[in-house]
Amino acid sequence: MKYKRYEAPTLQQAILKMTIDLGKDAILVSHRTTRKGGLFGLFGKKVVEVTGALPSRIKNPSTSSPEVKPSITSPSKVKGNNPQGDEINEIQRELQEIKQRMEIMFEEMKVGVSSKYPGKSGELYMRLIQSEVEEGLAEDLIKKIIAESSSKELEDKSLLQHNLERCIMDLIEVSGPIKLDSHPKVVILVGPTGVGKTTTLAKLAADFAFEKDCKVALITIDTYRIAAVEQLKTYAEILGVPLHIVFSPQEFGEAIRQLENFDLILVDTAGRSQRNHQQMQELKIFIENCGFELESILLLSATTKYKEMLDITESFKKVSFNKILFTKLDETVTFGPILNILTKVPKPLCYVTLGQNVPEDIEVADPKKIARLILEEQK
Ligand SMILES: Nc1nc2c(ncn2[C@@H]2O[C@H](COP(=O)(O)OP(=O)(O)O)[C@@H](O)[C@H]2O)c(=O)[nH]1
Ligand SMILES: [Mg+2]
Q1: In whole angstroms, how far apart are CA 145 and each of 138, 149, 344?
Q2: Is the entire prediction scored with pTM above 0.85?
Q3: How many domains does the chain have?
Q4: Of 31, 131, 231, 338, whose CB neighbour count within 10 A is largest?
Q5: Ligand 1 centre and the CA of 4: distance in Å?
Q6: Distance of CA 301 from the midpoint of ligand 1 (Å)
Q7: 179 located within any domain
Q8: Range of 302's domain?
C-alpha cells in the first residue's frame, strides 16, 4: 500500500488531485483542514490536506507527490493468528468502505466537472489540471472556449481542443531568436545553479558561429567554481571562439570593449541561489556597471516546481531580465507550469532546450509546440 499526501484549497480539489495522481482505485485515508503561511499559523491560507492510498497490486501511474509514511501498521506485516489480525481486518474493511465512498465521490466529481463544464470541455479542463496548469487559469481558458462554442461544438472534442490550443498560444509571448540589433550584441544568461546556463550558452554559440556565420565571443563571470570555467574553456576551444574570464565589473566592461568587433558576445554567470542576497547583489552590480547595454535571459528548468519557479523569477527581477528560456523540457511530462509562469511574468520566451547534447538540443520557442505539449494526453 502506498500512501501519499495532497493539498488543495478545497476537499473536492484535493481529492481530484489525489485521483488524478493515483487513479480512481485510490482510497481516501484521511483528510483535515489546516492553515498555511501567516503568523504562527494564524491568518494563513486555508488548505485541505488529504492522505490517499493505493493498494499495492495497482500500479501507481505517477510519483509526483511526496510519499508519506503510513500511520497504521501495514496489513502485509500481519501473519496467521497475530493478535493484531482482527484490528487489521477491521482497518481493511474500513478502507474498503472508504474506497467505495471514494468511488461514489469520484463519480460525483465527474458529474460536478461535467455539469460545470458542458460537453467535452470537462475532459479538457481535467487535461489542463493534469498538466499542472493553475486551477484559476485552467478555468478561465475553458470558460473562454465554452463562450465561443455552440452547444453542438461543445460535443466536438477535437474542435474544442483546437480552440483551446489557440487560446493557450495567445497567452505565450515569444521573442524569436536573439536579434543582433546592436553591435556588439551582449547577451548574459542568468539563473540558478545547474539550470543549464553553460550548456545553453555553448548551444547558442555554436548556432550563431556555425549556422549563422557570426563572429561570436564568450565571457564568463562564473569564477566561483573552477570546474565551471574549465567546462566553458572546453566549449570555447571546440567551437574555436575566444573566451574572457572576468572577476570585476570593470574587467567585464573592458572585456566587452576588447571584443567590440564581434557580432555576439555571450556571457556565462555563476549559478546563484535566489535566496542568497549577496550573490544576487553582486550579479546586479556586474550588469549595471559594465558600461554596456545587456540583454539578460533568465533560465528556468521545466523540472522545477512551479512555486520555486515563482520564487526564482521574483528574486531575479531584482537583477532584471528581459527574456525567459526554459531548459530540460525533455525531463518532464507536465508543461503547465511554463504557461503559469509566462502568464504571471510578462517577459517573452526566447528558446527552449530539450536535452544535454550540444549543439542540437535547443529550439526557438514556438507557442504552438508548447500548447500541444500542455494538451498532450498523459499515459
Ligand atoms: N536533460 C537535460 N539536461 C540538460 C539540459 N540543459 C543542460 N542540461 C544538463 O544540466 C546539467 C547542468 O548544466 P550546466 O550547463 O552546467 O548548468 P549551469 O550550472 O546553469 O551552468 C548538465 O548535466 C547539463 O548537461 C537540457 O535541456 N536537458
Ligand atoms: Mg555553469
Answers
A1: 11, 6, 21
A2: no
A3: 3
A4: 338
A5: 30
A6: 9
A7: no
A8: 185-375
How many Å lie between the centroid of ligand 2 and the Cα of residue 368?
A: 30
Give residue ranges with CB within 6 A of ligand 1.
Answer: 193-199, 271, 327-328, 330-331, 353-356, 361
Q: How far apart are CA 299 and CA 229, in angstroms?
A: 19
Q: In angstroms, what is the span from residue 302 Cα to ligand 1's centroid?
A: 12
Cβ atoms within 10 Å of 129's Cβ, excluding its own: 19
Beta carbons of 29 and 98 less than 8 angstroms apart: yes
**Whether residue 378 has pLDDT greater than 70:** no
Q: Nearest 5 degrees, angle CA 5-CA 65-CA 27?
A: 45
pLDDT (tens digit, 9 = 90+) per residue, 335-372? 999 999 999 998 999 999 999 999 999 999 999 999 99
Q: Whole-angstrom Cα distance, residue 319 to residue 190?
A: 9
State the Cα–Cα distance between residues 256 and 186, nearest whole angstrom.
8
Q: Which of 195, 199, 301, 354 to mutate to test the pocket of ligand 1 (most atoms within 8 A of CB)?
A: 199
**Low-confidence winner among 62-71, 305-314, 329-338 (lowest mean pLDDT):** 62-71
Residues 337 and 214 in one domain: yes
CATH number at residue 268: 3.40.50.300
Q: Give the helix/strand (H/E) hosting 10.
A: none
Residues 154 and 93 in one domain: no
Q: Long-range contacts made by residues 278-283, C-beta under 8 angstroms, separation at least 24?
A: 280/315, 280/316, 280/318, 280/319, 283/190, 283/319
Asked whether residue 281 is assigned to any structural domain, the reply reads yes
Whether 266 maps to a domain, the answer reads yes
Name the grid cell of 334: 507536465
Q: Give nearest CA residue, ligand 1 atom 7.
A: 196
Say how far apart CA 10 and CA 290 lie, in whole Å. Answer: 50
